[in-house]
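hey m, so remember when u said the tokens were messed up on ur end? i reran from scratch. heres the input so u can diff it against urs
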Amino acid sequence: MYYELTPKEFETLTLVGQGKSNKEIAEIQVVSIRTIESHVSSILRETGCVSRNKLIILFLNSKDKFIPRAYKRTSTIEKQITQLFIERSGILPSSTAVAITGASRGYASNIIQKLRRIKNSQVLCK
């Protein structure tokens, strides 16, 4: 299972994992504390964690399971292709994605190209 987070949630989680408080994170990201609280609540909801401490433990033990979401709304096909892409370490021909997900070739190719750009820019955590 992978946890998709917005880029800001991903950044927030990284700082939470470093033991930073909401106030410290808000100062670093130059946003309100309420915004950080909202990000943390969203991350807790996405992961199913019931506390900040459990979230930190999950993050530190499974960093490779957290991925930044490239889109605000991700379709089921995009999620499937993203998981296949990660499971195969970025080696995913569009024909395979089409065969497994039923996406159109163009749609699958666009998603894979975006994922490769993200991977090449070192956004995916290792």
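this time it looks ok to me. Confidence is low (pLDDT under 50) at residues 122-126. if urs says something different then somethings off w ur setup not the seq
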